[in-house]
Every structure is written in structure tokens, then in C-alpha cells.
Amino acid sequence: DVKVTQSSRYLVKRTGEKVFLECVQDMDHENMFWYRQDPGLGLRLIYFSYDVKMKEKGDIPEGYSVSREKKERFSLILESASTNQTSMYLCASSFGTVREQYFGPGTRLTVT
Amino acid sequence: AQSVTQLDSQVPVFEEAPVELRCNYSSSVSVYLFWYVQYPNQGLQLLLKYLSGSTLVKGINGFEAEFNKSQTSFHLRKPSVHISDTAEYFCAVIRSGNTGKLIFGQGTTLQVKP
Questions:
Q1: Model confidence pLDDT, tens digit, residues A23-78
Q2: Is the CB of residue A81 less than 8 Å away from at least one CB of chain B?
Q3: Sequence-separated (6 or more) residues with CB below 8 Å from residue A21
Q4: 3-state secondary structure (DSSP) of residue A104
Q5: A76-106, pLDDT tens digit by residue?
Q6: What is the dihedral of CA B43, A109, B87, B65, to 10 degrees?
Q7: Chain B hits for A92, Cβ within 8 Å
Q8: Least confident of A2-11, A40-49, A90-99, B3-12
């Protein structure tokens, strides 16, 4: 079974802090994704990576950056957390371009 | 622009009743479609997918969906629901250009009552 793990299930940070969310997949997938999920809005793509050191902006990249130094690991960085970044963050991975994505359990981030 | 519309934000239904969750998409290129389920405080799990072939797709937990190209729909159905089916359901489509990126609908909360 594909396994996607995220470093924290719940996280509370203060406004202005730098926040790192880590995601690891164990199936050698090329593609990795970061989404945020908010009620009534579904999932929105923040960033996408199709290879090590390669990244592409999604629909809502403002206020976020990413890092992919190894194939299995994809990090989401909030350079200076703000209260409007309070949300559920979901990581996913996939193999190829016409394949389903596999999701991690999510990190619920609260910025106070 | 590509989009996915889930027509109902909430669907209440009694246990053992049939259910249909509706999904319409707009796309001129991609017809790769998925349904995911999210149980409380968990990530998304794939229920079923349509990539090609038969338009009736069977998935896990007794769910099925029918791809209708003329109606641009991919509705999810189950003939008899259980309390354990209470969850949020997301329809998704791969974006044109086959980059592997998905567009998600807004989600439908299925509430199964005893």
C-alpha cells in the first residue's frame, strides 16, 4: 500500500512565525502536491512538484514556498504565518500524469 | 476554464436507502475523473476512477459511478447506505494537458441517519 505521511496532525503557531510542514511518500512517486482545504471551497492546489528540485505554482501560492531536495520528501513553508493561513493542509503524491493521487492524513494548522 | 461542480453541499439520507451524489464537469480535453471520500479527521481516500473503457465504474464499499460524456456528468451512487458511509465526498478531474494536477469540486457531505 502507498503510504503518505505528514509530520504533524495538529499544529498551533503564532502570527509571524516560520512554519514547516513535511510530507513523505514511500512509493517512489514523481509527483507531489500540497493543498489546503477550507469549508465550502474544497481542495485548492498550493504547489506541485514533478521531480526533485522542480516545483510549479498552483492556484494559491501566495504566502507559501516549497522544497523538494529528495524524491520522497516535499516540504511546505509558510515564511511568515498569518491568521488567514489557518486551515487543513493535505499532501498527496502520484505516479505519472494520468493516475490517482494518494493523500496523507492532513495537518490542521491554527495560526493565532 | 475547467471546473467541477458538485450540485449538493449536503445530502441527508436514512440508513439502507439509495443515494446519488451529483457531479458535473466542464472540460474540452480531459475526461479522467475520480471520486474521493474523506472520513472525519482523515485524508482523502480514492473510491473509484474513470480513465477509459466502460462508462460504469465500480469502486470500494459498494459505490459505483457512471460517466456520461454527453451530460458531462459523473454521478456517484450506492443502492443501500450504511451509517459508516457518513463522510465528505469529492469529485475531481485531471486538468487538461495531463499534468497530473486535479481540480476538485467543493465537496458533498453525506449524512446517513439511523
A1: 999 999 999 999 999 988 889 999 999 999 899 999 999 999 999 999 999 999 99
A2: no
A3: A6, A7, A8, A11, A34, A75, A76, A77, A78, A89, A91, A107, A109
A4: coil
A5: 999 999 999 999 999 999 987 778 899 999 9
A6: -50
A7: 44
A8: A90-99
What are the phi and psi torsion angles at B83 (to 5°)?
A: -55, -40
Going across the sheet that includes A19-25, the strands are A4-6, A19-25, A73-78, A64-70
| Residue B29 pLDDT level (bands cut at 50, 70, 90) | low
| Cross-chain Cβ contact A50/B94 below 8 Å | no
Q: What count of CB pairs under 8 Å joins A to B?
A: 56
Residues of A in contact with B32 (CB under 8 A): 98
Q: Residue A98, CB half-sphere, CA atoms under 13 Å: how many?
A: 11
pLDDT bucket at B101, cuts 50 / 70 / 90? confident
CA distance A22 to chain B (A): 15
Mutate to test the interface with A, among B44, B51, B93, B98 (most CBs of A within 10 A): B44
State the amino acid at position B63 in one-letter form.
Answer: F
Q: In 3D, which of B67, B70, B63, B71 has the Cα closest to residue B53?
A: B67
Return the residue in A3, A37, A48 with the most chain B beta carbons within 10 A, the one to mutate for interface testing.
A37
**Residue B30 dihedral angles phi and psi, to the nearest 5°:** -80, 135
